[in-house]
Amino acid sequence: MNDSKELRFKQIIEENKLRIEGICRYYSSNPEDRKDLYQEILVNIWKSLDKFRGDSAISTWIYRIAVNTSLSFAGKAYRNMNLNLEQTPQSLNILLDNDELELKQKKEQQLEALETELNLLSIIDKALISLVLEGLSMREIADIIGLTEPNVKVKIHRVKETLKKQLNSKA
Asked: Global pTM?
């Protein structure tokens, strides 16, 4: 085994552990499945490490592997995949551009409604939204998903508008 590859791998994982865990949280609510997914992502990073050319930031490359692994992890079951939001108003702020949320109970209801609507999205829209929630730039998301930056901006804007309409119609 190549010691320098192993050291590089350990350093990359240490620096990106929270990113990888974040993606795993979005794609699985089951702690055991999250562990399996995390391990699968690590395996794919190890396998691809020699192929990383530095064309993008290492974090972008990690996200790309994590999202692609997550999407293929359960194969066809991911058509019914659910995104799992942490119970924080920050998710609402990011997706709905809603800075002033009223009461905790209303926030929780909105979050539940948002989660329901998110889980009706297509696979690609779920992937886009999970990366938005991670706080990535449009350029980084474009690099990860393999779309142009303008296309990503349009898709995310449309998803946000659809989410707003759906949630406002239920309010």
From this structure: 0.63
